[in-house]
Specification:
The structure is a single chain. Helices cover 17% and strands 31% of the residues. It is globular and about 55 Å long. The relative contact order is 0.20. It has a single domain, classed as Deoxyuridine 5'-Triphosphate Nucleotidohydrolase, Chain A (Distorted Sandwich). The mean pLDDT is 83. By secondary structure, the chain is of the alpha+beta class.
Length: 214
């Protein structure tokens, strides 16, 4: 079940006694981020961007032995003050962030979609960005300009919508598994070395038999 904006407001204004069971979306700068007739919360663009540096790298290869080191070469962190802007050129991709810090209790999940007001100008926010129960942190936004002209991105403007859904818990004693991006405070990519360790090692053993671990 998708929560209405009014139900989301109730959960925010009347938090649960246990902090772990609370829904947190902060800061909410304007009342209209929770429109009465909608089923979502507007989230705003934050101030930090991960910008790909194409001149530094010829490819990204998840199976490369230097993949994690390559990621550091591939992206540059950029901070944009409130009142300033970031220019996203046609064909350019960046990782952005939400201004809001999010905490979801164990019975709520979320997903993020871009606002149509931006989409009609060619700005695409990766659709159906899943946010797992018990997540805490800012949300990373995958932002692309598929239009024909540069787009100015201003931190603080509403850029996406957060939808909340109730999770059907079959047992109250389920132990939560932390998200790969838990408590993140800046936009970042996933660590495949942790999430896909076994399959990555299998492929590497076949590609690099001389380096096969005993």
């Amino acid at each position: 079940m998708i929560l209405s904006a009014e139900r989301i407001r109730e959960l925010l204004e009347h938090p649960a006694a246990d902090p772990a069971d609370r829904l947190v979306i902060s800061p909410l700068l304007e009342e209209r981020q929770l429109k009465p007739t909608t089923a979502s919360v507007d989230v705003r663009l934050g101030q930090r961007f991960h910008v790909p540096l194409r001149a530094k790298l010829s490819q990204l290869n998840l199976l490369s032995l230097t993949h994690q080191a390559d990621l550091f070469k591939y992206k540059d962190d950029t901070f944009v003050p409130i009142g300033d802007y970031f220019v996203l050129h046609p064909g350019q991709f960046v990782l952005g962030e939400t201004l809001e810090w999010i905490h979801l209790p164990k019975n709520l999940a979320a997903f993020v979609i871009g606002k149509s007001t931006w989409g009609r100008d060619g700005l695409i926010i990766a659709t159906a960005i899943g946010v797992h129960p018990n997540f805490s942190g800012i949300l990373t936004l995958e932002i692309s300009n598929v239009g024909e002209i540069p787009i100015y991105l201003y931190p603080g403007l509403a850029i996406a919508q957060l939808f909340l859904a109730v999770v059907d818990l079959t047992a109250e004693s389920v132990t939560p598994v932390p998200s790969a991006f838990q408590v993140q405070t800046s936009p970042r990519t996933r660590n495949v070395e942790i999430e896909d360790r076994d399959i990555i090692q299998l492929f590497r053993d076949r590609l690099f038999p001389d380096l096969k671990q005993s």
